[in-house]
Structures are given as structure tokens and as C-alpha cells.
Amino acid sequence: MKDFFKKYPGLIVFIGVGILLTIVFVFYEVMYNTQNKEQQGQYEELNKSAWITEVGEPEESETVSAEDAERAENDAKMKAFLESVEDSDFYKKQLKSRPNFETYWEINEDVIGYLLIPDSKIEYPILQNDSKRDYYLKRNIDGSTGYPGCIYIENINEPNFRDPVTIAYGHNMANKTMFGQLHDIYRNAAFRDSHKYVFVYQPESVSLYEIIAATSYSDEHLLADNFKKEDDGFMFTGIRQDDQVKVMNHLKEYGDKNAYFKEGEEVTENDRLFVMATCSSNRIRVIVVGKLLFTHLY
Question: Based on C-alpha coordinates, what's the Rg of the chain?
Fold first, then answer.
């Protein structure tokens, strides 16, 4: 045996390093999967308990404010939508329900919204940190660091989802949590045709978006044209009124041959887009775009 060690010292070192790396990898995988399971369990428990199933109607006022006018316009859009959609009872129930944000705020005050894609695993609070753009890329809702992170929007977007383009990010998790299902469900024509709408809840409202695109894009920021270089890095210069048009043009020009774009759907400067983005492979991102139909104010 001693002769073996003397004769093949390099091989012994190689085997030893291999064993060490294997141990480290196995330990990392165990910790990684354990943390993911714990965090996903927390989300699922909140999903079951933190909902208000009936939202009261607003009190009538003798004066008509701008908010009242907006409410009336959106209510008319909602009524027309419910009359046209097949499963109107389901959508009416979802539009009359909402997460209990007070429950989420007890865990983290950075929760600004909640995303729900029916019949999928994508049911998560949306977070935003006002000091760092990608703060929740590797931070969980309870403040711990690591994966799976959170569904979040950068602080270049307003937290009220009223920008022409709001982009939500989430990890493409191998166990299909977070945005791990995004690619599969919206590249599936059958699912897409039967699940055309997604809900974005806020403390005082719920917005319904229709999916109008599912495609891929480079890892370049979709709003890259609105960044300028400063001495301390990239600084956001603001969202211009034509961004929603420009974003759709960028996506179409990218040339994904398997892309889905709703036939005949045009985006104008009066539209609002909610974009869901996650990484794929080779520095490619999966992009799903929703177009606002209406916002129901509670």
C-alpha cells in the first residue's frame, strides 16, 4: 500500500479532492432542497390561511370624485368581462376575494402585491425593496438569504403597478416552484387557451391581465433603453410613455421561432403591461406578457 501511495501520489490527491467535492456537493444539495421545501411550505401555508373571501362594496358618496369615475369605468369593464367569459362564477369569486395583506406584512413589510395564475403553482406575494433593485433575487420572504428568493419587482417600477410596463422576476426553480412553471404552462397551447388571465392583487384592488405573449429574450434588461451610465453605475431615468410599445417590438424582433403572440393584438401607449420574467439557459430569459383588462377597486 505504501508503494502504491509513493507510485501514484497525484492519483491519490485527485481521488481525495473528488471525494471532498462530492461531500460538499451532497451537503449543498441537501441544504438547498431543505431550504426550498421550507420556504415553499411557508408560502403554501399562507396561501391557505391569509385570504379574505368576501370583499365589501364601497360606501356610496354624494359627490363623484376622480376615483369614483375610475371605479365606475373599471366596474363596467369587469361586468362586460364576466358576461363574456365562460367560467364567470370562478372569476367573480376571485375578483371578490383577496389576500389578507396584514398577515403578510407581519412577516415582511415589503410585500406590495400578490400574483395568482389559476391551476398552477404560481401563487405568491410580490415584494419590492426600495433601496436595492434585485434585493429579493436571493432573499426569502422571511429575510433569510438563499433560494428560492421571492417574486419581486425592481424599485425602478412604481409599487402601485401603474407604470406602462411593470416587470416581475422569479427564479426558474427545478421543482417548478416560483417561476419554474412559467415556460411550460404558457408554451402549452391547451393551457394557455384555457388560462388566458392572471390576477395581481393589491391591498385595495385586484387587476386582471390577459396573456398576450409568451416568448424568450436575451438577458438584456427589457427597459435597457431607459438606463444611463453614471459614475456609480446604472441609474434609471424614468419610464417613457411609449415603453409598452417598445417592449413588445423588442420581443417580436428578437425572433423566437416558438414564440406566442396573440393574433391581432396591438399594444398602444394607453395600455399597461405586466411582464413575468425568469431565466432559462445560455443567458436566455423566458418572458410572459399580460395586458391589463381592468382594475377592480375594493
Answer: 23
The CATH number, out of the four listed (2.40.260.10, 3.40.50.1220, 3.10.20.30, 2.40.440.10), of the domain defined by the range 50-297? 2.40.260.10
Omega into 148 within 30° of 0, i.e. cis?
Answer: yes
Q: Is the pLDDT of residue 78 over 70?
A: yes
Residue extents of the structural domains in the chain: 50-297
pLDDT given at position 234:
55
Instruction: Give the pTM.
Output: 0.81
**Cβ-contact 171, 179 below 8 angstroms:** yes
Report the Cα–Cα distance between both ends of the chain, in Å, rounded: 78
197-202 and 205-218 beta bridge pairing? antiparallel
Distances (CA, A) of 277 to 6, 36, 154, 172: 55, 20, 12, 9
Q: What DSSP element (H or E) covers 125?
A: strand 123-127
User: Can you give the length of the chain in residues?
Assistant: 298
Q: Which residues pair with 116 in a beta bridge?
A: 123, 199
Q: How far apart are CA 254 and CA 247, in angstroms?
A: 11
